[in-house]
Amino acid sequence: MTAQRFPTRILDGTTIERLRFGKGDYVHPPSGQLELRVVRRGSSQAEIDLGSGSRSVFTRPGDVLLSLPDKATRFGIVDDREVSILAIAAPNALTWVRQAGGVDLEELSPLSRKPLRAPLIARLIDRLESEADGPEPISEAIVLVILAEALRMARRLRAREGATVLSHAEILRIIAKVEAQLEKPASADELAAEVGVSRRTFGAIFKEATGLPFHQYVLQLRVERAVELLTESNLPLPQVALRCGFAHQAHMSRMVSRLKGEPPGAIRNRGRSV
């Protein structure tokens, strides 16, 4: 079956168009685009596969349906439908998802199971569609807000379902963030909220990935950074402590001595004698 197409709006790597589908079965191969569909007209039961398996669902105006770039989709509808489709080329979508605080498009996969009630996303897509001559920077900002909201919804859904697995990319991003912000790293609670899981779940996932509880991993990073600064710089010990996120020099001395078997002063002197 083919759809009746209305005028297409083209942004930077993005299109938005209104399509009208008659009763029938529609199968689409992977498009290479992140697609968000908003049902504009038509309410009934439908057979829908957004890439996560076929489901019989009731759809109505305002519903949002999301599909990932590498997934084929199928829609079996029993009445006429009118749908707005925001399609974003995968590289652009990935850039915007990362700007919104995500890691990869797979983070949005919880939203590809069934139609969603997402009023903010529906309204913003409506605005993109109606303001065809709007400035491109504003349109891009709207798309960024749409993806940020989709990311937030996906994380909430995953947390509500009790998901216990983060992608490898998410784990690497968290580790890199901790290492980059060692002077004042985000807490386990903050990181857990960021990726949409409970603190307990985050702790279990982090330990499985690194072999250490979160606080011990951070402590080990601080000690290793301290040893590096002690042997490769002339920073006074109090400044080394602060650079590594220790509360004060005495705290650093205790932790370095515990994990390295000798105090910071001895490590510095040994480094200078090499």
TrEMBL record:
One function term, GO molecular function aspect: DNA-binding transcription factor activity
One Pfam family linked to the record: HTH_18
Domain HTH araC/xylS-type, chain residue ranges per copy: 172-270
Lineage top rank: taxon: Bacteria
Record keyword Nuclease present: no
InterPro entries registered for this protein in UniProt: AraC_XylS_family_regulators (IPR050204), Homeodomain-like_sf (IPR009057), HTH_AraC (IPR018060)
Key words, A-Z: DNA-binding, Transcription, Transcription regulation
Name assigned to this protein: AraC family transcriptional regulatory protein
Organism from which the protein derives: Erythrobacter dokdonensis DSW-74
